[in-house]
Amino acid sequence: MGKVLLVLLSVLYPALVYFLIDRVQPGWFLSLMFGLLLWRAIASRQPAERWTLVAATLLLAVLSLILPAEQSMKLYPVLMSLAMLLLFGSSLIKGPTLVERIARLKEPDLPPEGVRYTRQVTRVWTVFFAANATIAMATVLSNDDQLWALYNGLISYLLVGMLMLGELLVRRWVREKQG
């Protein structure tokens, strides 16, 4: 139940901010963000993910001192994209890549071409999360609540889904091509 609530709150965070922005003090959203980040860190079983989330929490603390509260409370999607960027990107430096580790759960004896493919997919996700974090931050700095909610509460999720579907289709095509 706790994990479901965590995912639900994380996914719905942009909608909560958008609909409650005029009714709730920014400090409440910052508290919720700190709580979500720390909860995710504690719930994580992966040390790399845990430390990434702790780093995101510290970054939030620093940014909340620099930015106005109305902007700070909208940083959660930015921090999640940065955390994912760090997880995927760091695995490119110190392998195996995150995508390779996931692939080996299904196919433990991944052939060399599979390792190369998963490395490319990891690069794509790394670039995606860098771009997503940049766009999410631009929506924060725009001070346009509707734009922020639209991108971070809908468009970014659609883009993630499209990338997942696209990768699945490419993977099938590559496998068919290899025979």
From TrEMBL:
Assigned keywords, A-Z: Membrane, Transmembrane, Transmembrane helix
Regions that span the bilayer: 27-43, 50-69, 75-93, 124-142, 148-170
Protein name stated in the entry: Uncharacterized membrane protein
